[in-house]
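Lecture 7, part 2: worked example. A protein chain together with pyridoxal-5'-phosphate.
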Amino acid sequence: MERIYNFSAGPAVLPREVLEQARDELVNWQGCGMSVMEMSHRGKEYMGIQAEAEADLRELMAIPANYKVLFLQGGASSQFAMVPMNLLRGKASADYLNTGVWSKKAIKEAKNFGAVKVVASSEDKSFSYVPTQDAWKLDSNAAYLHITPNETIGGVEMFWVPETGEVPLVADMSSTILSRPMDVSKYGLIYAGAQKNIGPAGLTLVIVRDDLIGQPIAGTPTMFDYKTHGDNDSMYNTPPTYAIYIAGLVFKLLKAKGGLGAMERTNRQKAALLYDYLDSTHFYHSPVARENRSLMNVPFTLKDAALDEDFLKAAKSRGLVQLKGHRSVGGMRASIYNAMPVEGVRALVDIMKEFEKARG
Ligand SMILES: *Cc1c(COP(=O)(O)O)cnc(C)c1O
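Predicted complex, written out as structure tokens:
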């Protein structure tokens, strides 16, 4: 079978070029006689791979020198705990913006470590928008403000960065990192699970400003202290070596393709193909406020939910898979990360049009 178009929200499609290079290098990496998976993480070959991955990421995202790049494990879900454990720093509470399923999980976990103040919530309208900052109640003494710039399940994205003064901004960028340029200097900490827009599952990326680490709450396990990993170049223990190698190949490819500005242009083009069509028909519907429509995750519903299964079948027969919406919201969701080619989105719009013609 040829490659299909995989619209999964994560683990998600990876660039074909990266998979092919990994295949070619799988058994014998660059003539060294072994696979990357078999290398000692303290050997010079692997250390070179990781250092290059970090350097390429720093260049791609223009990460300032006073930020650490950490290659961790445990997924974004572990960061829901590591962030408060490390960033509360003796303060009474932290601020959280509640824009969807992932925000809620982050809030729930943070409550295990300190007081949480929800500055605003869009739960009143089924998480279909992001409240604008004039409607927020920010606490100038908060340890940090946590946001989820792209809610992967709701398909709700923020295209602006909040003003927080001295309060560090923390962002769960799991499903938006590398999709467009971000000004890292506006954030205290950025984290992302790799399996959406970076590489394989098993790697979690953390980018954190130096001055925020080193004051974990009492009893923080060594492995959950950012400083442990910062002081040891993410090699305090064995890092997820193969996932980091693949992520490194992705970083190189993005650089070769023109960097994050080029990614943004393609991603906007892909998203416009879908949203323009959704807006032109009454057969399908986008539940998300226009100004918050995600470039990466596009949920939509059919006018008649009884047609959902037939639609999924029709799409699958053309090699378009993983379009079923998250079980908590229903309908459809097309995740169109960096590695989804424009042709895949065109093929999706084509089948949507045909299905409307046949069943509308
Ligand atoms: C997928 C996702 C998570 C959870 O990631 P894990 O790596 O599975 O823990 C958290 N936040 C967002 C925004 C996500 O998209």
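The longest strand covers residues 115-121. The radius of gyration is 21 Å. Keep this in mind for problem set question 3.
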